[in-house]
Each structure stands twice: as structure tokens, then as C-alpha cells.
Design a protein that fits this description.
The complex is a heterodimer of chains A (261) and B (296). Chain A has 261 residues and is mostly helical. Chain A is 82% helix and 0% strand. Chain A has one domain: MetI-like fold (Orthogonal Bundle). Chain A is built from ten helices and no strands. The longest helix of chain A has 38 residues. About 3% of the residues of chain B have low confidence. Chain B is built from nine helices and ten strands. In chain B, a hairpin with a 2-residue loop joins β4 and β5. Chain B is 38% helix and 22% strand. Chain B has one domain: P-loop containing nucleotide triphosphate hydrolases (Rossmann fold, 3-Layer(aba) Sandwich).
Chain lengths: 261, 296
């Protein structure tokens, strides 16, 4: 009975990884088949070895640390700013919301890359401008989803809370907040994705460390294996972050049945 | 002195129409009603006559535009722990277990964690859901969810139970069982109950008195005494008794007139202005922005 289930799981896993495995094998075989020039696109084996070398020498970790530090700080600042703001706008200040909403929409939909020079002019070319732009990019999904989450709380929950004489604070803490949490988490998850996305872009434009910088620098000196090593590292890091966020979400909302990690 | 007394209660809603002005929608046109302590009062009426609005007013969630609602002689100015509501739609908090849902109201007045748990478990077993205290609402059937809602309302030991079509969303069999449970529980605990329903059979089965509300703007057209004894109601063949049949027929006649009025009004309304309904406040830009973003 148990071995049957195990075989079943193995089969599912094999099926799910089949496309990725096929892709990697094709990439590996492509130079030998003459499909691509290995100088421009090194096969996975070369990239893997390069990643290993960079890890050993510590160089990769230095850049990963620089990247993670920026994205983490920008993300946290965005949460600290956008979550309370979202609660206030969504829950209390209805007229304020109507007045400020058009402006927020314009700002939130502006391409952040166009604003990066502004951040650099205001905050210099050091860490602050990069953390600043990441904060900027993160706050919009969190803000909009928090406002939307609060506004779309089923009014019957609020009725129940009010009928039991809850204070406004308790109404917020015990009814609005947990009810809006799924939407808020969606915003947080989205902003984590955007943050990482923006991070690489910012590092490519104006940085002296980080994975984005590593990619640009390797390309400039034509160190292709190193560049691909950095690219793959970015991909893997992005997957890891997404996986981490989904797990946090699943834990925080264990009562919801439909999150599949 | 009546437990609950409503004197000339009026309520009008303002609905934004297309021209950005407000249409007046009179929901209640002067409701007079007296409910005695321990009485099970049922309100029936055609759709849209204002029954739920009236319940909202008694609960204190909204205030009347004119007239007063008093409980034990005191005017209602807001919600209170002496009244508990059970809604038609599922109002259980999905993020709390069954037990925690029942404990919800107790958290504001009882700081003893173990005592709260005990009380909640007691009420859960009262509604027949002893083993389900660690379940989440999404794991329960509709009937079970309503039982939990009832337990949650009872946990605060309110003197008054307000029920807004609590069984309407359930299948017929669950409904019949729950009707008997509600009757038994409310009588055993001597609660005063105000119960809203569309079903005449349900009204006659449950109610000591049944108030028929007129079409909008709602007023109480007539209050009917239901002469069924507790022993009769406890029997399986209560629907075949003379008293049941007669009460049912009287109610049906009264209600039919009002339902026809509503239907005629709808036909008139539709022939006057095609496709006009009270304008809903349109979804605002922020929500649209989120929709755009979540499509990424």
C-alpha cells in the first residue's frame, strides 16, 4: 500500500520535472550538435562548474549578500509604510481615498525604471537609491491589495462584530485584519516578486556589487561562463524567494484550503 | 411592559441614481409591534417589504428615521449584548475554528480562557456539534454552519434572539430538523425571539404569533395568534392539525394580497422605464488598478 503511493509520487515528480530535464539536456547537447556557439552560450556543465568555483572563492556569496540586503531592506520599508497606509485608506478615510486615488494610480503604474534616475539624483549613487527604488516598487502592490482587501471584506462579518459590541480597534484587529489577510498576502507576494525584478535592473544600471552588477561586469569583460553563472543564480534565488513566500503564506493562513505550494 | 416595542418606526434609504442625485427608497412606513418576554414572534412578508431592515433596527445596527424601538422600556441606540443575531448567509469567520467562532463574543466580556472554552463547548453540544470544535467552517455543511452560528449567538446568553431567515439557505430536511431544534432551545432558555421567514409553514410551526408585513413601505398589516400548544408542536403530525391548517390558510390569504401588490408594482415599474435599477456605487479606480496589476 505504502510503496504504491511512493511509486505514484515518484511518477508525478518524474513527469513534472521531465520538461526541465529535457531543456537542460538539450542545452547541454546543443554545442555538440552545432546548434549554438559554446563561447556565447556555454552548456550547463560549464555554468555549473563556474557556479561552484565562484561559491568556493566566496565571490558569489558576496554579491548575493549585497543583493539580498538591498531587496530585504526595500521590501521591509515598503511593508512598514504601505500596510498602515492601506489600512487607513481602505478602512477609514473614504473621502481622502477618493481624492488621492487618481494620483496613486498614476504613480503606481509609472514604469519604475524611468524613476530610477530621480532616485539617484535625490539619494546618490550608493545603497540608498537602490533601496529607495525597491521600496518604491514594493509599496504599490501592497498598498493597492491592502486597500482592496479591506474594502472587500464581507460586510456580514462586520455586522457580526458590531452586533457583539466590539470596539473599533477590536473590530479592526479581530475581524477586518484576518478577513483581509488573503488579499494582503497576495500584495506582499507580488511585491516580493517585483522587488527582486527591480533589484536586478537597478544593479545593472548603477551599482558596484550585487548579482545584477555581476552580470553586467562579466559581460563587459566577455567572461561568458561567469555571466551565465550569475544569471542562473538570479533565477534560482528568485525561485527560492517565491517558494519561501508561499510557505509563509500557507503557514499564516492555515485555515485556507486552496494554497498549493 | 413588552420586552420589545416598536412605535411608528420609519426608515428611508437614499440610493444614488444615474443623475448623481438621491432617490428615496422608503423601506418602513410606520411599524408598530409589541413582543412580550419569552414570546416567539415571526414576521412574514413579501420580498423587499423591509423585514430585514426592521431586524437591523431592533438589533441597533441602524437607527430609525422616525419612531422608536424600545427594549424593556429603554430606547435602542446601538447594538448590545442583550440581543444576538443569526444571519441567513454564512457569517462564521473562516479563519477561526468552530470553537473559536463560538467564543468570539465571549472574548470581550470574559477574560478567563478556560471558562470561555467551557462555555463554548457547552453551547456546541447544545446544538449537537460536540465533536466538531476543531473543525474550520469550510469543513462543515450548511446546516452545521448555521448550528454554529446559533451557538455563537447563544453563547453571550442574550435575552433576545434575532433571526433573519436563518434556515432559508438550507435543504428542506436539514431545515425541518433545525426548526425543531430552534424551537426547543429558545423555549428551554426562555428567550424572546424575533424570527423572519418567507415560509408560511415555518412561521406557523415556530411562532407564538405571526406578524404579516405589508409590501414596501412596510407596516404591520396584522398580527395573528397561533393557537398551537407546545405538545402539539412536538408531535410529528402537527402540520395536519386543524389549528395549523387554519392558521396557514389565514396567513396565506393575508400574504397573497401583499405579494400581488409587489408584483403589480414591478410590472408598472418595468413598463415605465426600461432597464433602470437603483444605481450601485460604481467600483472605484483603486479596485480597477488592483485588477490591472493582478493580471500581471
Amino acid at each position: 500500500m505504502e510503496s504504491n503511493e511512493f511509486i505514484k509520487k515518484l511518477k508525478t515528480f518524474a513527469l513534472k520535472s521531465s520538461a526541465i530535464v529535457a531543456f537542460v539536456l538539450l542545452w547541454e547537447a546543443a554545442p555538440h550538435l552545432g546548434l549554438i556557439d559554446p563561447i556565447f552560450i556555454p552548456p550547463p556543465s560549464v555554468v555549473a562548474v563556474k557556479i561552484y568555483q565562484l561559491l568556493l572563492s566566496g565571490e558569489l556569496l558576496v554579491h548575493i549578500a549585497a543583493s539580498l540586503q538591498r531587496v530585504f531592506l526595500g521590501f521591509i520599508i515598503a511593508l512598514v509604510v504601505a500596510l498602515p497606509l492601506g489600512f487607513l485608506i481602505g478602512g477609514w478615510f473614504k473621502t481622502f481615498e477618493m481624492a488621492v486615488d487618481p494620483l496613486l494610480q498614476v504613480l503606481g503604474q509609472a514604469n519604475p525604471f524611468t524613476l530610477f534616475p530621480v532616485f539617484m539624483a535625490l539619494l546618490g549613487i550608493g545603497e540608498l537609491s537602490k533601496i529607495g527604488i525597491i521600496y518604491w516598487v514594493c509599496q504599490w502592490p501592497v498598498l493597492f491589495n491592502t486597500v482592496s482587501g479591506i474594502k472587500s471584506v464581507d460586510p456580514v462579518y462586520i455586522k457580526v462584530g458590531r452586533s457583539m459590541g466590539l470596539t473599533k480597534f477590536n473590530l479592526f484587529k479581530k475581524v477586518l485584519l484576518p478577513a483581509a489577510l488573503p488579499a494582503i498576502f497576495t500584495g506582499i507576494r507580488m511585491s516580493a516578486v517585483f522587488a527582486f525584478f527591480m533589484l536586478i535592473g537597478a544593479e545593472m544600471i548603477g551599482a558596484h556589487s550585487g548579482l545584477g552588477f555581476l552580470i553586467i561586469q562579466s559581460e563587459a569583460v566577455f567572461n561568458m561562463p561567469k555571466m551565465y553563472a550569475a544569471i542562473v543564480s538570479v533565477a534560482l534565488l528568485g525561485i527560492a524567494i517565491n517558494y519561501l513566500m508561499l510557505n509563509i503564506e500557507k503557514k499564516a493562513m492555515s485555515w485556507k484550503e486552496d494554497i498549493v505550494v | 411592559m413588552a420586552k420589545i416595542e416598536s412605535v411608528n418606526v420609519k426608515k428611508t434609504f437614499k440610493i444614488k441614481n444615474k443623475g448623481n442625485q438621491y432617490d428615496e427608497l422608503p423601506a418602513l412606513g410606520g411599524v408598530d409591534l409589541k413582543i412580550d418576554q419569552g414570546e416567539f414572534m415571526v414576521i412574514v412578508g413579501p420580498s423587499g417589504c423591509g423585514k430585514s431592515t426592521f431586524l437591523d433596527l431592533v438589533s441597533g445596527l441602524t437607527l430609525p428615521d422616525e419612531g422608536t424601538i424600545s427594549i424593556d422600556g429603554k430606547s435602542v441606540t446601538g447594538p448590545g449584548l442583550d440581543r444576538a443575531i443569526v444571519f441567513q448567509q454564512n457569517a462564521l469567520f473562516p479563519w477561526r475554528t468552530t470553537l473559536k467562532n463560538v467564543e468570539f463574543g465571549l472574548e470581550s466580556i470574559n477574560s478567563d480562557k478556560d471558562n470561555r472554552r467551557e462555555i463554548a463547548l457547552d453551547y456546541l453540544s447544545l446544538v449537537g456539534l460536540s465533536g466538531y470544535h476543531n473543525h474550520y467552517p469550510h469543513q462543515l455543511s450548511g446546516g452545521m454552519k448555521q448550528r454554529v452560528s446559533i451557538a455563537r449567538a447563544l453563547a453571550l446568553n442574550p435575552g433576545i434572539l434575532l433571526m433573519d431567515e436563518p434556515l432559508a439557505a438550507l435543504d428542506a430536511q436539514t431545515r425541518e430538523f433545525l426548526q425543531r431544534d430552534i424551537l426547543r432551545i429558545s423555549k428551554e432558555s426562555h428567550k424572546t425571539v424575533l424570527f423572519i421567514t418567507h415560509s408560511i409553514d415555518e412561521a406557523v410551526f415556530l411562532g407564538d404569533k405571526v406578524a404579516v408585513m405589508s409590501a414596501r413601505p412596510g407596516i404591520i398589516k396584522q398580527v395573528l395568534d397561533i393557537p398551537l400548544t407546545a405538545e402539539q408542536r412536538a408531535r410529528d403530525d402537527v402540520v395536519a392539525t386543524q389549528e395549523f391548517v387554519q392558521s396557514r390558510q389565514t396567513l396565506w390569504k393575508l400574504l397573497k394580497e401583499e405579494v400581488i401588490k409587489v408584483q403589480e408594482a414591478q410590472i408598472r415599474f418595468q413598463s415605465q422605464s426600461p432597464a433602470q435599477s437603483p444605481a450601485r456605487v460604481s467600483g472605484n479606480g483603486l479596485i480597477n488598478a488592483v485588477r490591472v496589476l493582478t493580471k500581471i
